Amino acid sequence: MKISDILTEDMVMAGLLGDSKDEIIDALIDRVATSPKVKDKEKVRLAIFEREKIMSTGVGNGFAIPHGKTDAVSDIVASFGVTAKPIDYQSLDEKPVRLVFLLVGKDNLVGPHIKLLSRISRLMNKEGFRKHLLELQTPKEILEAFKSEEATYFDA
Predict the structure, then answer these.
(1) What is the CATH classification number for the domain harbouring 116?
(2) 20-65 pLDDT, tens digit each
(3) How far apart are the C-alpha atoms of 148 and 133, rounded to whole Å?
(4) Higher-confidence residue: 4 or 133?
(5) Domain total of the chain
(6) For 91, which of 24, 121, 125, 140 is 20 to 30 Å away at the CA?
(7) How many other CB atoms are found less than 10 A from the CB of residue 48?
């Protein structure tokens, strides 16, 4: 499964507003909850914030990947945001975050969930790609950047 299989233009947010980690995560959850694959937004919220309590999903280099698994979705869903300003995310490297990829997996789809987390992490570890995402203005441009980068980086 590819990122471009689950991330759609309507799930991408450019200029994402919020003053805290929780506000940014909430905004991404609100967006992903508009998907017909989400059966219960509050259960999704609970899964994401319970995972966040274990350890911050701010992985470093200005990137965070809040995620969780729940039976409140019928399939894997995702949203992505570029924040309007740097956000204190309690990241592992203690640096602020501007790129946030929310991934919500179905309880019984552990394998695809882990593969997607790995794929997202590998893409986002590329400094040039992260810098490029910060320069883009629209959800369409951001989604096209993911598709293009994924096409050159991974075997089909």
Answers:
(1) 3.40.930.10
(2) 999 999 999 999 999 999 999 999 999 999 999 999 999 999 999 9
(3) 12
(4) 133
(5) 1
(6) 140
(7) 23
